[in-house]
Amino acid sequence: MNLVRPVPKDVTNSVVESPRRTPQKCQRPTELILRRPASATPYHGRRPPEVSTPPPSEHIEFNQLKEMLLKKSGDLCYNFERITATKDDFIDEGQLGAGTCGVVKKMRHKERRDLVMAVKQMHVSSTCAVENKRIMMDLDVVTKCVGCPNIVKCMGIFFSMSEVWICMEVMSTSLDKLMRDTVEPFPEYVLGKIAVSIVKALDYLKREHNMMHRDVKPSNMLLSSSGDIKLCDFGISGQLKDSIANSNQLGCIGYMAPERLEKFKYDVRADIWSLGISLVELALKSFPYKGSQFEFAILSKIIEEPPPKLPNDGRYSADFCSFVDKW
């Protein structure tokens, strides 16, 4: 079977092209947090409150963004109609998911029963500037990207000094859940559709907003009821300067490109690497870096071992295997 259609010409080469690196292998990844054993901490296993003071320029930018978001609070867009609402106008219909920053719930408008949203609820911290920055970044990016069909649509926000709601279109499931719920691995034509959709989303972020995602993985790829694949969760997205990211902000270690682990500077090709690892996982129905129980071992294998490959057993075409190898 030939690989589905090649990546469309409207996707720029700066996103698609990625040189072959020599890293990888391990067990399903987690967030990379290097910490002392609980017995070695003065807080009896609890991390001390993370109080940080951002530089003056960052503080000014944060306040400007906060003021802008406060003005947008309660202004929703549903089916091209502007609706002014409050949090009290919605009924909680149950939890859809949970992450490091908060929970996602299904919410329905009390009077407009057809108005249903997936609401990401996050609490603003009074002590953790890093966590607040992540929340603000997620808010900023998702409200800017309403014009991209490959990014989960934001219908509006509710913003206060203690809590943030991001109101999004309801999606059917994430690709990691779908992978666990299905018996067979994803067929090649489905993987091709996933690849094209995510590359388009990454290209949009780079071309329109000069940003990269930095946390591309199956759990951040959502499937709609109509079969569309969309990218979500922009909490650790990064601004690029001269096409280079200059930050050590970490995501999920098992999907991170070697240059993000070894160097301080990297570019959008690191997101393409993460997409490649995700495609291999979905194709094999198994995370490609198995066997290690510690994050440091995962890190070492990513840096020192060759990248994972698709099996040469006839299940996937030569074109598709070559396509994945180029990530």
Automatic annotation (TrEMBL):
Cross-referenced Gene3D superfamilies: Phosphorylase Kinase, domain 1, Transferase(Phosphotransferase) domain 1
Residue ranges occupied by any Protein kinase domain in the UniProt entry: 90-327
Top-level EC class as recorded in UniProt: transferase
Keyword DNA-binding: no
Annotated GO biological process: stress-activated MAPK cascade
GO molecular function annotation: ATP binding; JUN kinase kinase activity; protein serine/threonine kinase activity
Keywords of the record: ATP-binding, Kinase, Nucleotide-binding, Serine/threonine-protein kinase, Transferase
EC number: 2.7.12.2
Origin: domain of life: Eukaryota
Keyword Nucleotide-binding among record annotations: yes
Signal peptide range: none
Region (Disordered): 1-58
Family affiliation: Belongs to the protein kinase superfamily. STE Ser/Thr protein kinase family. MAP kinase kinase subfamily.
Official protein name in the record: mitogen-activated protein kinase kinase
Source organism of this protein record: Hydatigena taeniaeformis (Feline tapeworm)
